[in-house]
Amino acid sequence: MIESAGMQNLLAQLRVARETVAQGLTSSAKPAAALAPGAAGAPDFGAMLRSTIGKVDAAQSDAATLANRFQMGDTKVSLEDTMVALSKASLSFQELVQVRNRMVSAYRDIMNLQI
Hints:
mainly alpha; about 120 residues; 4 helices
């Protein structure tokens, strides 16, 4: 499966965040300090998500612009470039939807935990 660099970056940052939280929970440090937003070295998940959504939006906008230019007969835009841009935009959007689905699933699992 082909994955975009933005999604790979997001997954790498999520792995780092998971390791950071796991180390903070197993060490003698307070867990709240490890989970505090804006803590030194702690990645900001909201910022990562906004950045990824922005990149997906930019890819879709660029693909739509190329498609419009190709349809208008711009000789500087080839069919191959247009199709590649449209495919990249489609794949990045599908990956974003899958991330959203997993986040919703994780949220539901957490909400259904017995306390």
